[in-house]
Design a protein that fits this description.
Elements (H helix, E strand, L loop, with lengths): L10 H20 L14 H5 L10 H4 L5
Length: 68
């Protein structure tokens, strides 16, 4: 059920909003249930560690995540 909480939309605006909701629901239903969502590049841990490996030393533990 869709309820208009505020404003006075025209029938065309309601139809457009309903079309978007139905399209998103159809897309979500078509996806396999076990599919993983793609990761964004900024949250990929391999991009941080790919620059270079830390050199041994007393501060190496800090460079394992934040390479300089």
């Amino acid at each position: 059920m869709i309820k208009v909480v505020r404003g006075n939309p025209t029938p065309e605006e309601l139809a457009a909003a309903l079309a978007v909701v139905r399209a998103r629901a159809a897309t979500a239903a078509a996806e396999p249930s076990g599919a993983e969502t793609p990761r964004d590049a900024w949250s990929d841990p391999s991009r941080v560690a790919a620059a270079r490996l830390p050199q041994p030393g007393p501060t190496a533990w800090g460079r394992t995540y934040w390479p300089s």
